[in-house]
From TrEMBL:
Domain Anaphase-promoting complex subunit 4-like WD40, chain residue ranges per copy: 266-327
Pfam families: ANAPC4_WD40
PANTHER family the UniProt entry points to: TRANSCRIPTION INITIATION FACTOR TFIID, TRANSCRIPTION INITIATION FACTOR TFIID SUBUNIT 5
Xref: InterPro entries: Apc4-like_WD40_dom, Quinoprotein_ADH-like_sf, WD40/YVTN_repeat-like_dom_sf, WD40_rpt
Protein name as catalogued: WD-40 repeat-containing protein
Length: 329
């Protein structure tokens, strides 16, 4: 079995990520822990926290109930990017060219690398934001669908409608598909066709016994892994119509123990799976082969993250028992 380096923290850990080879763990109370030649802590936001990794700049972006948005560098340095007084920043997203999106209430803001801030108003509360893989474009998840905005231009937003509460959003790595998680224990997808007058096709991905709180695309974007069931539900997106008419893979099935977090390997067609009892497993798409990475712990796995070379896997939990798995160990 691979070796595990444990890290016990107080309270709920909302996110984990690698900056270079350094694993970071962001707690719900605003403290950012890292294992960098010892256990070190950065205090950024005051109070409850939202956190995401910025791939391009290798930083963490955090937002919190204090109305502040920070960038956390690999050495733990915290830089204030934006502040919205008396507002709770509930959603953050990191994009290309140093852009950062953050949202509170019905407003999404995008801060560009030069400090310019663009503002986008929605008709309903913003529940999730994601950047397109190419071009400065964002998708905003909201009640009854999602909205697409071009950040740098004053073009008309594109509304993608589907009844229900949409709580999270993600673009496929090639930008052809947009997928939202829903309050109604389902995923919903749209095929994004850039040709003038082209129809935007719907994709319904249903049958989950619980809400989908974690989604992860495979390295080449052929698969979308998701939580919300007693197995990792992995939808095929290789064909031009995505998963329409196709059954998903079900990996790492464990009876009545629910999958709470998923993270696809950065190179291989493998997914790391975290469960409600704290167990962590890896499963391969091609033959469903499973490898146990960590035995059950104190709380449900809340976040998983691979290092860039895929040799290390960090895991975080709702009970604060975290750690790093050395796959080769």
């Amino acid at each position: 079995m691979p070796t595990v380096a444990p890290l016990d923290l107080d309270g709920h850990v909302v996110a984990t990520a690698f900056l270079g080879d350094v694993p970071f763990f962001a707690t719900a109370i605003g403290a950012i822990h890292r294992l960098d030649h010892g256990h070190k802590v950065t205090e950024a936001n005051d109070g409850l926290l939202a956190c995401v990794r910025a791939e391009a700049s290798d930083t963490l972006v955090t937002g919190g109930e204090d109305g502040k948005v920070f960038s956390i560098a690999a050495d733990g340095t915290a830089t204030l990017l934006a502040e919205v007084p008396r507002k709770w920043i509930s959603v953050v997203a990191a994009g290309p060219q140093g852009a950062v999106a953050f949202a509170e209430g019905r407003t999404t803001r995008v801060r560009l690398a030069d400090g310019t801030v663009k503002e986008f108003a929605e008709s309903r509360t913003v529940e999730g934001v994601a950047f397109a893989p190419k071009g400065l474009r964002i998708a905003v998840a909201r009640y009854n669908g999602a909205t697409l905005h071009w950040v740098a231009t004053a073009g008309q937003p594109v509304d993608l409608e589907w009844k229900g509460a949409h709580t999270g959003v993600t673009f496929s790595p090639d930008g052809r598909f947009l997928v939202t998680s829903m309050q109604e224990n389902a995923l919903h997808g749209w095929k994004l066709d850039t040709k003038p007058g082209a129809d935007t096709r719907h994709m319904r991905m249903t049958g989950y016994p619980a809400k989908v709180k974690s989604m992860s695309w495979s390295a080449k974007g052929k698969w979308l892994a998701s939580s919300g069931a007693p197995a990792a539900i992995v939808w095929p997106f290789a064909s031009k119509d995505g998963p329409m008419g196709k059954a998903p893979l079900e990996l790492g099935t464990r009876g009545d123990v629910m999958v709470t977090a998923v993270a696809c390997h950065p190179v291989e067609e493998v997914v790391a799976i975290g469960y409600s009892d704290g167990m962590v497993m890896a499963a391969r798409f091609s033959d469903s082969r499973e490898v146990l990475l960590r035995r059950p712990g104190k709380g449900a796995v809340s976040s998983l993250a691979w290092s860039k070379n895929g040799k290390l896997l960090a895991f975080a939990s709702e009970a604060g028992d975290c750690g790093v798995v050395d796959i080769a160990g």
